[in-house]
């Protein structure tokens, strides 16, 4: 039976993890452009001022990545093709790490990711706030988010209130009459999750947990001060661009639009009448998101679309490439600007935006983003892990790295009423749920 079905039931139980040994976590980033499998070893670390809240060091010991087939704008369009790519990526990571993967933490971009805040209050009657009261108010908020066609990916308390006084991080032991909580709930359509699980099951693997892509990329690309003071991470993938807003150390908003780097490539292929592969190469080698004074003087060679050897490449000014690319990039950035404004979190984001994901590596992207978003912009590369091969240190691997970091954050989540980390999919017996608990209790 599917873990993404309508009812809640147990995932296979495994033995509790030993606090005396390291833990190995396997993750799978399924994207429109590429599929990445990463295997990492998590070893206990002391609390430090660098990356506070992180309980473990993360060392990547296996990596496999393959070009995607069968995925359009983050949505699975061909099960057989995706299954084959997943098998190849996992096999390469297994060989490098020298171990076998049975279950994986996977990302999800499809399924129209939703982001809502639910508020709930309970009556304390002037008594001290106890752990049972916290559980009650979290359950009350979580129950408001239950829906039949959508599954809860993340459920994060973003702040408590006591007698109307907001912004309380930990009310335990305080006195008051009314305890309230704001709960940020990230959801996705169940059908998209079922298809994702089906693909992984067909490759003889099981789903350990599911993480929203914007959350994972934000965990990898943002520094402590950005997460604390307020910042937006924009992950520009091949078929999707996602937004995550962090503040006071927590994920407080997510959003996604179905436009990415692949749309720029198809615009070039159509505009220049060339093949997709040639358009991609032209974009990477000669493309830019902003016009340059030399563009009119420079000429680029565009291969013909046909197979006839007599067809000669067309010579076009580089300015034409820039015009086609910048039109799509400006449209995407304007959409992102409007989404941030509409979300109500624009003041929280302030002046800080971090671009990550493979499509943000286009020449001139930071300049275009600064102009349209009217904010400070930097390119975010994956941080906080060791052992990354040189090829995986770029923004294109932020989501995969974020997935390896995620288990340390899992204990921050509360799925009301059922006590499990992924309650719509299980009853909390999954290894990742217990891993989060173990990390919290042991260190």
Descriptive notes:
There is one protein chain. With 443 residues, this protein is an alpha/beta fold. The chain contains twelve helices and 19 strands. The chain has three domains: 183 residues, ATPase, nucleotide binding domain (Nucleotidyltransferase, domain 5, 2-Layer Sandwich), CATH 3.30.420.40; 75 residues, Dna Ligase, domain 1 (2-Layer Sandwich); 157 residues, Nucleotidyltransferase, domain 5. 32% of the residues lie in helices and 29% in strands. The strands form five sheets. Strands 11-6-1-2-3-19 form a six-stranded mixed sheet, sandwiched between helices. The longest helix has 26 residues. About 7% of the residues have low confidence.
For this entry, give a set of tags.
alpha/beta; Nucleotidyltransferase, domain 5; 3 domains; 32% helix; 6-stranded mixed beta sheet; 19 strands; 443 residues; single chain; Dna Ligase, domain 1
Give a brief description.
The protein contains twelve helices and 19 strands. The protein has 443 residues and is α/β, with parallel strands linked by helices. Helix 10 links the parallel strand 17 and strand 18.
CATH homolog superfamily of the largest domain: ATPase, nucleotide binding domain
State the share of residues found in helices, binned by percent: 25-40%
Percentage of residues in strands = 25-35%
Which regions contain 5 or more consecutive residues with pLDDT less than 50? 4-20, 416-430
The secondary-structure class comes to: alpha/beta
Compute the gyration radius: what is it? 23 Å
Sheet with the most strands: spatial strand order? 11-6-1-2-3-19
Which CATH-level-2 architecture of the largest domain?
A: 2-Layer Sandwich
Average of pLDDT = 86
Overall 3D form: globular
By CATH, the topology of the largest domain is Nucleotidyltransferase, domain 5
Number of helices: 12
How many domain modules?
3
Tell me about the biggest sheet?
Answer: 6 strands, mixed
Classified by CATH, the class of the largest domain is Alpha Beta
Q: How many beta-strand segments?
A: 19
- Span between termini: 35 Å
């Amino acid at each position: 039976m599917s873990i993404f079905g309508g009812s809640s039931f147990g995932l296979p139980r495994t033995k509790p993890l030993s606090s005396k040994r390291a833990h190995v976590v396997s993750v799978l980033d399924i994207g429109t452009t590429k599929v990445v499998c990463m295997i990492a070893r998590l070893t206990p670390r002391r609390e430090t001022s660098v990356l506070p809240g992180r309980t473990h060091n993360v060392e990547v010991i296996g990596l496999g990545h393959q070009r995607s087939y069968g995925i359009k704008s983050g949505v699975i369009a061909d099960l057989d093709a995706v299954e084959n790519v997943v098998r190849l990526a996992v096999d390469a990571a297994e060989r490098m790490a020298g171990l076998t993967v049975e279950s994986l933490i996977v990302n999800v971009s499809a399924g129209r990711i939703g982001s809502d805040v639910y508020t709930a209050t309970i009556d304390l009657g002037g008594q001290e706030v106890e752990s049972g009261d916290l559980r009650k108010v979290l359950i009350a908020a979580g129950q408001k988010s239950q829906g039949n066609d959508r599954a809860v990916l993340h459920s994060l308390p973003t702040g408590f209130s006591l007698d109307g006084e907001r912004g309380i991080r930990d009310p335990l032991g305080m006195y008051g009459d009314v305890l309230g909580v704001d709960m940020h709930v990230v959801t996705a359509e169940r059908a998209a999750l079922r298809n994702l699980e089906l693909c992984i099951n067909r490759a003889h693997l099981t789903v350990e947990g599911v993480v929203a892509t914007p959350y994972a990329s934000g965990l990898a690309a943002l520094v402590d001060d950005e997460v604390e003071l307020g910042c937006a991470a924009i992950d520009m993938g091949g078929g999707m661009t996602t937004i995550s807003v962090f503040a006071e150390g927590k994920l407080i908003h997510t959003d996604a639009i179905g436009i990415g780097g692949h749309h720029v490539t198809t615009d070039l292929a159509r505009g220049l009448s060339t093949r997709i592969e040639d358009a991609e190469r032209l974009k990477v080698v000669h493309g830019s998101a902003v016009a340059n004074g030399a563009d009119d003087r420079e000429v680029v060679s565009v291969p013909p679309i046909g197979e006839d050897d007599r067809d000669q490449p067309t010579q076009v000014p580089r300015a034409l490439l820039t015009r086609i690319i910048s039109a799509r990039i400006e449209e995407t950035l304007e959409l992102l600007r409007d989404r941030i404004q509409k979300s109500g979190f624009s003041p929280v984001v302030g002046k800080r935006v971090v671009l990550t994901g493979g499509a943000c590596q286009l020449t001139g992207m930071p300049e275009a983003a600064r102009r349209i978003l009217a904010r400070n912009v930097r390119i975010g590369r994956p941080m906080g892990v060791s052992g990354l091969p040189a090829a995986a240190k770029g923004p294109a691997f932020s989501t995969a790295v974020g997935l390896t970091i995620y288990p340390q954050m899992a204990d921050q989540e509360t799925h009301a009423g059922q006590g499990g980390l992924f309650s719509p999919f299980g009853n909390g017996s999954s290894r990742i749920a217990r891993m989060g608990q173990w990390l919290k209790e042991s260190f």
